[in-house]
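Retry 2 of 3 after timeout on previous attempt. Resubmitting structure tokens to design endpoint.
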């Protein structure tokens, strides 16, 4: 059972017009169809989803719902919202965000971060054992060895993510400038190893949530757009377990490119005869398939990022288009009101609770009327309208009857 501190945290998020992680299940209405699709997708354990929605209808909220559902079902989850940081065209920045937000559900601690997971993995799978996936990856081997011995590996981790260009050890493999797309194959190689290791540890897979794909339309240069596009294409290939990434040959123009996928491979790890020892998929002893347990959700504002809409159709993504939860307005108003009352149920706010008992029915109708006058009538508008009205009533102690409420909310609107 949540205490009123958690409820106040939910209300704090609602004041910004969003439903935060703590309230994501409590305050969801009218999304049964979408959640049934998500449930089936998670059970299938492969592929990608494209979510489209008009602004303010609940795209980010749906991402949080998927995150919660995936964690509850035993998946690892990472969430990245594209923007100024990370931009879609800088692989190092994207993967730094992935590793920073990566969550591993844990019965004892609730959630582990990447470093806590590595520590637990080192205990279960000793360095060099046949089952140790991480130590078989050339970029993770040194880090894992340090973690296993309880030594600090911060400098190695920072170099891996491009936070420093100083190579920590002479035998540490070269990481190119993380700002350029030639580093992309290396980072996907690392991510696939971590995902496979997580599944080896007992997790069902890794779900990557990428929000705000419409930022692609705001990318200025041709090279940046190509890099952004290649990143999402690589995600789609990996989620669909594409075999070309395992053994395709290369041709060289300005870059080393895969003949079948057209994706760029890092030249530092391509030999003179044109073979690569670092592909998008890592080389794992005994593994012959292309299933690394990675799934993805791509979200964008409807009508924008059309290039990704076309890609989704080509790759047979599951597509979900969100609409406003019309017809569920009173249900959401009631739920927000209930959370609000619980958040202010302590003795210092008992006056508000007592006064509100006589105002609640009129309040719901008045909030709905004000919402109907809003320009866009989005879910975000309804949330904000409800919270603003509740705040006004709580702060105006003289409001004790419906007539006063009517006057207050006309002014407050």
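Retry 2 succeeded. Sequence:
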């Amino acid at each position: 059972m949540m205490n009123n501190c958690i409820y106040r945290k939910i209300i704090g998020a609602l004041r910004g017009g969003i439903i935060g992680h703590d309230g994501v299940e409590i305050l969801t209405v009218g999304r049964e169809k979408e959640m049934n699709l998500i449930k089936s997708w998670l059970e299938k354990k492969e592929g990608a989803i494209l979510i489209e929605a008009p602004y303010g209808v609940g795209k980010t909220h749906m991402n949080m719902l998927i995150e919660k559902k995936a964690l509850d079902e035993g998946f690892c989850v990472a969430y990245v919202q594209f923007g100024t940081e990370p931009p879609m065209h800088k692989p190092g920045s994207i993967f730094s965000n992935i590793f920073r937000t990566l969550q591993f559900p844990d019965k004892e601690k609730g959630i582990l971060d990447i470093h806590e997971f590595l520590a637990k993995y080192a205990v279960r799978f000793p360095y060099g054992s046949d089952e140790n996936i991480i130590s078989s990856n050339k970029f993770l081997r040194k880090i894992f060895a340090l973690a296993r011995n309880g030594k600090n590996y911060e400098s190695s981790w920072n170099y891996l993510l491009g936070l420093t260009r100083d190579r920590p050890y002479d035998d540490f493999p070269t990481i190119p400038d993380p700002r350029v797309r030639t580093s992309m194959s290396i980072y996907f190689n690392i991510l696939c190893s971590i995902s496979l290791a997580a599944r080896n540890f007992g997790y069902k897979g890794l779900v990557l949530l990428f929000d705000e794909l419409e930022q692609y339309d705001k990318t200025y240069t041709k090279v940046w757009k190509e890099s952004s596009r290649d990143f999402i294409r690589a995600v789609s290939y990996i989620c669909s377990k594409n075999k070309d990434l395992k053994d395709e040959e290369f041709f060289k123009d300005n870059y080393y490119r895969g003949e079948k996928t057209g994706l760029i491979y890092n030249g530092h790890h391509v030999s003179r005869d044109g073979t690569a020892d670092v592909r998008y998929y890592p080389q794992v002893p005994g593994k012959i398939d292309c299933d690394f347990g990675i799934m993805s959700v791509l979200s964008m504002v409807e009508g924008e990022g059309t290039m990704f809409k076309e890609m989704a159709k080509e790759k047979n993504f599951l597509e979900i288009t969100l609409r406003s939860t019309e017809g569920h307005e009173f249900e959401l108003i009631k739920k927000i009101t209930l959370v609000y009352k619980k958040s202010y149920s302590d003795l210092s706010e008992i006056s508000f609770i007592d006064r509100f008992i006589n105002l609640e029915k009129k309040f719901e109708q008045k909030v709905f009327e004000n919402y109907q006058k809003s320009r866009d009538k989005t879910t975000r508008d309804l949330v904000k309208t409800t919270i603003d009205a509740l705040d006004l009533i709580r702060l105006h102690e003289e409001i004790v009857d419906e007539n006063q409420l009517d006057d207050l909310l006309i002014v407050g609107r």
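Attempt log closed. DSSP finds 16 helices and ten strands in the chain.
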